[in-house]
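In this section we walk through a basic example: taking a raw amino acid sequence and producing a predicted 3D structure, encoded as discrete structure tokens. The instruction is simple. Fold the sequence below.
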Amino acid sequence: MIKRFLNQLFSNPIDRSLRAKVTFGIAIPLVLVLGTFTIIEYTRYRSDLLSHLSVMASYNGQLIEDTLQHSMLESNFVDVQRILDVVGQNQNYRVVYIINTAGKVIFASNGTGIGTRLDNTNPTCRPCHDLSPQERPKGIMVPAEDGQRVFRSMQPIENSPECSTCHDPQQRLIGLLLTDIYTAPFETALSSDLRENLFWALGMILVTLIVVNLAMGNLVVTPLEKVAAELARFGSGNRDLHLEPGSQDEIGQLKTVFNKMAQQIQAEESENQALSQDLQHQTTRQQELLKGLITAQEDERKRVARELHDDLGQSLSGLALHSEVMEQYIHTDPERALEQLSLTRGLIDKTTQQMYELILALRPSILDDLGLVAALRSLAKKVLPEGQFTFTLDSSELKKRLPPSIETALYRIFQEALSNIVRHSGANHVTIHLAEHAGVFTGEIVDNGHGFNPETISLEADNPRGLGLLGIQERVGQCGGTMQITSRAGEGTRLQVQIPLPKDDHE
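The resulting token sequence is shown next.
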């Protein structure tokens, strides 16, 4: 129930104010505690006061009885009535009765109610008469017939030897003095005291709220508002923020954590920005490589089409022509027909060789049949001009063939490397070394050319040498490997490639 009340209380703009929450968080417990304490204290004080007043009412009855005793012993009933009238003049007294043993009122203040017989079955009498005579109190607070509460004092008048002239000596009691005193004046005083206590309690709550609010504002709320403002600036994109801890409390710890978080976010954003730029650069390079590869593919198609047209086309046309000549002379001039047959055979050999070279340029069958080592030897023999280059290939540390996809990639890598050496290096000696250790293939190609600065070579599509290196890098990356180029001006160039091999292939 309290939780629901608090939720309803804070479900408004106050929910967005920390100062209001602090104020309510202090005010509500104070109101509950002080209110409960005031009510408990008021109830206890009222109960004690009324109890003491009830006893005092009993003492008043005893005092009135003692005052009346002399007049009653002398049977001076006029003086008895006078005394009762004097007592009755006090407005706090509702009634002052002297009742005989039959319950009849024989004396009353101002003579009001004389002759009235009191019935002990009346609800106002039952609180005492429901008890045994020994347990009946001398005073009790009861509601009167007019609806007001009164202190009722019942003082028995005991028989004495002096009273025996008028009363039976055997009677223990000869009457009862009954007084009713209104409680309203006392309750009014209690209510006034309660209002005063509530006023002071509210004043204390207000002062406490002001003092605590000022203290909490300076010590907690204001620092938190500054932290919130800085966080808002940080969230809006201002990353160059640093909060001074200033203290070792929770707010200082919050500032320290924020500073660490800000530094981490700045580092991550810088890293993400660098990764984004690198990714963009890689994407651009791949697009340029794709463009270069498409161009190279179209050039290769043009070359193949041209060779098919110029070489194979002419050879096939020559074969057709020689076949017609042989057909003309096979019966009339057998010797000339045999001569044409010999020329045709030579032309067929030439055509076959041309087709073989064309197929080999597209996909060397030796790579599939004999493996990478044999294919590289054959490639170097064709690519490196005889008399201008010496060539060495060391494969002693490569004990078995590699997976087909890796052999194909390595063949194209070394093919591009040899092409770059012939076109750009100015070298006269090339060495290729192939090895495999612990499931990792290592291959390198070294030349003794004039070298270059790798940092000056842009891996872009408009740089032929850079495009070739970019293609090598992409092929190595597709195999999950790494590439390293070592070169200096006048000291040649070393290209090293490392590719991890599948476990099933090297175990």
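Looking at the output, two observations stand out. The domain at 27-190 is CATH 3.30.450.20 (Beta-Lactamase). The mean pLDDT is 76. In the next section we compare this with other chains.
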